[in-house]
Amino acid sequence: MEVIKVKDYQELSKVAADIIADLLKKNPKATLGLATGSSPVGLYQNLIKMYENKEISFKDVKTYNLDEYCELPRSHPESYYSFMHRNLFSHVDIKEENVHIPCSEGSDLQKLCDDYNNQLHNASIDLQLLGIGANGHIGFNEPGTSFEQETFVVKLTDKTRKDNQRFFNSLDEVPTHAMTMGIKNIMQAKKILLVASGKNKQDAVKKLLSGEITESFPASILNKHKDVVVIIDEEAAGLLK
Ligand code: F6R
Fold it and tell me: Which of 65, 87, 126, 137 is labelled catalytic?
Protein backbone atom coordinates (compact mmCIF):
# COMPACT_ATOMS: atom_id res chain seq x y z
CA MET A 1 0.00 0.00 0.00
CA GLU A 2 1.46 3.32 -1.05
CA VAL A 3 0.47 6.24 1.19
CA ILE A 4 0.71 9.79 -0.14
CA LYS A 5 0.34 12.54 2.46
CA VAL A 6 -0.73 15.94 1.20
CA LYS A 7 -1.57 19.24 2.85
CA ASP A 8 -5.27 19.63 2.27
CA TYR A 9 -8.30 18.66 0.21
CA GLN A 10 -7.24 20.86 -2.68
CA GLU A 11 -3.88 19.14 -3.04
CA LEU A 12 -5.47 15.72 -2.52
CA SER A 13 -7.88 16.42 -5.37
CA LYS A 14 -5.06 17.48 -7.69
CA VAL A 15 -2.76 14.54 -6.90
CA ALA A 16 -5.62 12.02 -7.25
CA ALA A 17 -6.82 13.56 -10.53
CA ASP A 18 -3.27 13.41 -11.92
CA ILE A 19 -3.11 9.66 -11.21
CA ILE A 20 -6.38 9.11 -13.11
CA ALA A 21 -5.35 11.46 -15.93
CA ASP A 22 -2.02 9.62 -16.34
CA LEU A 23 -3.93 6.36 -16.70
CA LEU A 24 -6.26 7.87 -19.33
CA LYS A 25 -3.29 9.27 -21.27
CA LYS A 26 -1.64 5.82 -21.33
CA ASN A 27 -4.88 3.96 -21.90
CA PRO A 28 -7.66 6.11 -23.43
CA LYS A 29 -9.96 3.06 -23.34
CA ALA A 30 -9.53 2.53 -19.60
CA THR A 31 -12.34 1.26 -17.40
CA LEU A 32 -12.79 3.26 -14.21
CA GLY A 33 -14.64 2.31 -11.05
CA LEU A 34 -16.05 5.52 -9.59
CA ALA A 35 -17.32 6.75 -6.24
CA THR A 36 -19.67 9.46 -5.05
CA GLY A 37 -19.72 11.45 -1.80
CA SER A 38 -17.71 14.53 -0.86
CA SER A 39 -14.25 12.99 -1.23
CA PRO A 40 -14.07 12.76 -5.06
CA VAL A 41 -15.83 16.04 -5.97
CA GLY A 42 -12.60 18.07 -6.13
CA LEU A 43 -10.81 15.44 -8.16
CA TYR A 44 -13.71 15.30 -10.61
CA GLN A 45 -13.42 19.11 -10.96
CA ASN A 46 -9.73 18.71 -11.80
CA LEU A 47 -10.54 16.01 -14.38
CA ILE A 48 -13.12 18.32 -15.97
CA LYS A 49 -10.48 21.08 -16.22
CA MET A 50 -8.02 18.68 -17.84
CA TYR A 51 -10.72 17.60 -20.29
CA GLU A 52 -11.49 21.25 -21.14
CA ASN A 53 -7.75 21.85 -21.71
CA LYS A 54 -7.80 18.85 -24.07
CA GLU A 55 -5.29 16.94 -21.94
CA ILE A 56 -7.63 13.95 -21.53
CA SER A 57 -10.76 12.56 -23.13
CA PHE A 58 -13.47 10.21 -21.86
CA LYS A 59 -14.61 9.33 -25.40
CA ASP A 60 -13.65 5.66 -25.03
CA VAL A 61 -13.67 5.41 -21.24
CA LYS A 62 -16.08 3.05 -19.49
CA THR A 63 -17.20 3.64 -15.92
CA TYR A 64 -18.80 1.50 -13.23
CA ASN A 65 -20.04 3.19 -10.08
CA LEU A 66 -19.75 1.58 -6.69
CA ASP A 67 -23.25 2.05 -5.45
CA GLU A 68 -26.68 3.66 -5.60
CA TYR A 69 -29.41 4.34 -3.08
CA CYS A 70 -32.50 2.19 -3.23
CA GLU A 71 -35.81 4.02 -2.82
CA LEU A 72 -34.65 7.07 -4.82
CA PRO A 73 -35.56 7.43 -8.49
CA ARG A 74 -32.59 8.21 -10.74
CA SER A 75 -34.10 11.66 -11.32
CA HIS A 76 -33.80 12.54 -7.60
CA PRO A 77 -31.04 15.16 -7.12
CA GLU A 78 -29.35 13.01 -4.45
CA SER A 79 -29.38 9.77 -6.44
CA TYR A 80 -25.83 8.76 -7.31
CA TYR A 81 -26.92 8.74 -10.95
CA SER A 82 -27.71 12.49 -10.64
CA PHE A 83 -24.57 13.09 -8.60
CA MET A 84 -22.30 11.57 -11.22
CA HIS A 85 -23.89 13.51 -14.07
CA ARG A 86 -23.83 16.78 -12.11
CA ASN A 87 -20.23 16.39 -10.93
CA LEU A 88 -18.55 14.72 -13.91
CA PHE A 89 -20.40 13.06 -16.77
CA SER A 90 -22.36 16.10 -18.03
CA HIS A 91 -19.12 18.07 -18.35
CA VAL A 92 -17.02 15.59 -20.36
CA ASP A 93 -17.32 13.60 -23.57
CA ILE A 94 -18.21 10.25 -22.01
CA LYS A 95 -20.80 8.22 -23.91
CA GLU A 96 -23.92 7.48 -21.89
CA GLU A 97 -23.82 3.84 -22.99
CA ASN A 98 -20.39 3.54 -21.32
CA VAL A 99 -21.72 4.74 -17.96
CA HIS A 100 -22.77 2.00 -15.54
CA ILE A 101 -24.45 2.77 -12.24
CA PRO A 102 -26.28 0.14 -10.20
CA CYS A 103 -29.94 0.56 -10.89
CA SER A 104 -32.14 0.25 -7.88
CA GLU A 105 -35.30 1.37 -9.66
CA GLY A 106 -37.65 -1.53 -10.16
CA SER A 107 -39.37 -4.12 -8.04
CA ASP A 108 -36.96 -7.02 -8.49
CA LEU A 109 -33.90 -5.77 -6.65
CA GLN A 110 -32.25 -9.20 -6.65
CA LYS A 111 -32.41 -9.33 -10.43
CA LEU A 112 -30.96 -5.81 -10.67
CA CYS A 113 -28.10 -6.89 -8.36
CA ASP A 114 -27.44 -9.99 -10.44
CA ASP A 115 -27.48 -7.94 -13.65
CA TYR A 116 -24.95 -5.43 -12.28
CA ASN A 117 -22.80 -8.23 -10.91
CA ASN A 118 -22.75 -9.91 -14.32
CA GLN A 119 -21.74 -6.62 -15.91
CA LEU A 120 -18.89 -6.36 -13.40
CA HIS A 121 -17.77 -9.92 -14.18
CA ASN A 122 -17.51 -8.97 -17.83
CA ALA A 123 -15.69 -5.72 -17.10
CA SER A 124 -12.09 -5.37 -16.12
CA ILE A 125 -11.68 -2.31 -13.93
CA ASP A 126 -8.29 -0.68 -14.40
CA LEU A 127 -8.65 1.72 -11.50
CA GLN A 128 -11.23 1.75 -8.73
CA LEU A 129 -11.64 5.05 -6.90
CA LEU A 130 -12.77 4.80 -3.28
CA GLY A 131 -13.69 7.07 -0.42
CA ILE A 132 -13.86 5.59 3.06
CA GLY A 133 -16.69 5.80 5.57
CA ALA A 134 -15.88 6.95 9.10
CA ASN A 135 -16.80 3.38 10.12
CA GLY A 136 -14.46 1.87 7.52
CA HIS A 137 -17.05 1.11 4.87
CA ILE A 138 -16.00 1.02 1.21
CA GLY A 139 -18.80 1.29 -1.28
CA PHE A 140 -21.67 0.59 1.09
CA ASN A 141 -20.04 -2.51 2.52
CA GLU A 142 -20.73 -1.83 6.16
CA PRO A 143 -18.77 -3.37 9.07
CA GLY A 144 -19.38 -7.12 9.29
CA THR A 145 -19.81 -7.63 5.53
CA SER A 146 -18.10 -10.78 4.25
CA PHE A 147 -14.97 -10.18 2.19
CA GLU A 148 -16.49 -12.67 -0.29
CA GLN A 149 -19.60 -10.54 -0.86
CA GLU A 150 -20.50 -9.52 -4.41
CA THR A 151 -23.11 -6.92 -5.49
CA PHE A 152 -25.98 -6.85 -3.01
CA VAL A 153 -28.67 -4.74 -1.34
CA VAL A 154 -27.49 -3.46 2.01
CA LYS A 155 -29.33 -1.96 4.95
CA LEU A 156 -27.41 1.21 5.78
CA THR A 157 -26.20 1.62 9.36
CA ASP A 158 -27.50 4.51 11.48
CA LYS A 159 -23.96 5.98 11.41
CA THR A 160 -23.82 6.03 7.61
CA ARG A 161 -27.33 7.48 7.33
CA LYS A 162 -26.42 10.24 9.81
CA ASP A 163 -23.15 10.94 7.96
CA ASN A 164 -25.13 11.33 4.72
CA GLN A 165 -27.95 13.37 6.25
CA ARG A 166 -26.13 16.55 5.18
CA PHE A 167 -27.31 15.92 1.61
CA PHE A 168 -30.99 15.68 2.61
CA ASN A 169 -33.49 17.91 4.45
CA SER A 170 -33.89 15.45 7.33
CA LEU A 171 -32.74 12.03 8.52
CA ASP A 172 -36.14 10.60 7.53
CA GLU A 173 -35.39 11.42 3.89
CA VAL A 174 -32.10 9.48 3.85
CA PRO A 175 -32.69 6.12 2.17
CA THR A 176 -32.43 3.07 4.42
CA HIS A 177 -31.03 0.74 1.74
CA ALA A 178 -28.50 0.88 -1.08
CA MET A 179 -27.23 -1.41 -3.82
CA THR A 180 -23.48 -1.74 -3.77
CA MET A 181 -20.58 -3.57 -5.37
CA GLY A 182 -19.39 -6.13 -2.85
CA ILE A 183 -15.90 -6.22 -1.41
CA LYS A 184 -14.99 -9.08 -3.74
CA ASN A 185 -15.93 -6.95 -6.78
CA ILE A 186 -13.87 -4.03 -5.47
CA MET A 187 -10.82 -6.23 -4.87
CA GLN A 188 -10.88 -7.38 -8.50
CA ALA A 189 -9.84 -3.94 -9.77
CA LYS A 190 -6.27 -3.84 -11.07
CA LYS A 191 -5.48 -0.72 -9.09
CA ILE A 192 -7.26 0.97 -6.19
CA LEU A 193 -7.06 4.67 -5.35
CA LEU A 194 -8.51 5.66 -1.97
CA VAL A 195 -8.83 9.29 -0.93
CA ALA A 196 -9.55 10.46 2.63
CA SER A 197 -9.78 14.05 3.78
CA GLY A 198 -10.71 15.77 7.03
CA LYS A 199 -10.81 15.07 10.76
CA ASN A 200 -13.88 12.86 10.48
CA LYS A 201 -11.67 10.26 8.73
CA GLN A 202 -8.82 10.22 11.30
CA ASP A 203 -9.90 7.02 13.05
CA ALA A 204 -10.65 5.23 9.80
CA VAL A 205 -7.27 6.15 8.31
CA LYS A 206 -5.45 5.01 11.45
CA LYS A 207 -7.25 1.64 11.40
CA LEU A 208 -6.69 1.19 7.67
CA LEU A 209 -2.97 1.80 7.98
CA SER A 210 -2.57 -0.35 11.11
CA GLY A 211 -2.46 -3.35 8.75
CA GLU A 212 -4.91 -5.45 10.79
CA ILE A 213 -7.39 -7.20 8.49
CA THR A 214 -10.86 -7.77 9.90
CA GLU A 215 -14.40 -7.91 8.52
CA SER A 216 -15.45 -5.49 11.26
CA PHE A 217 -13.46 -2.85 9.35
CA PRO A 218 -14.21 -3.46 5.64
CA ALA A 219 -11.49 -1.20 4.19
CA SER A 220 -8.85 -3.30 5.98
CA ILE A 221 -9.08 -5.88 3.16
CA LEU A 222 -7.24 -3.38 0.95
CA ASN A 223 -4.07 -4.39 2.80
CA LYS A 224 -4.27 -7.61 0.76
CA HIS A 225 -4.49 -5.90 -2.64
CA LYS A 226 -1.23 -5.62 -4.54
CA ASP A 227 -1.69 -2.12 -5.99
CA VAL A 228 -3.34 0.39 -3.65
CA VAL A 229 -2.60 4.09 -3.40
CA VAL A 230 -4.05 5.94 -0.41
CA ILE A 231 -4.03 9.74 -0.46
CA ILE A 232 -4.66 11.47 2.86
CA ASP A 233 -4.54 15.09 3.88
CA GLU A 234 -3.06 16.47 7.10
CA GLU A 235 -6.36 16.39 8.98
CA ALA A 236 -7.13 12.79 8.01
CA ALA A 237 -3.57 11.84 9.01
CA GLY A 238 -3.98 13.53 12.41
CA LEU A 239 -3.79 10.33 14.48
CA LEU A 240 -0.81 8.84 12.68
CA LYS A 241 2.57 8.99 14.41
C1 F6R B 1 -19.69 6.51 -2.32
C2 F6R B 1 -19.30 5.42 -1.44
C3 F6R B 1 -18.98 5.64 0.00
C4 F6R B 1 -18.21 6.92 0.27
C5 F6R B 1 -17.95 7.08 1.76
C6 F6R B 1 -17.23 8.37 2.06
O7 F6R B 1 -19.95 6.02 -3.62
O8 F6R B 1 -19.27 4.33 -1.88
O9 F6R B 1 -18.24 4.54 0.46
O10 F6R B 1 -17.00 6.89 -0.43
O11 F6R B 1 -19.16 7.05 2.44
O12 F6R B 1 -18.10 9.43 1.77
P13 F6R B 1 -17.59 10.95 1.75
O14 F6R B 1 -16.61 11.06 0.66
O15 F6R B 1 -18.83 11.76 1.49
O16 F6R B 1 -16.99 11.20 3.10
Answer: 137
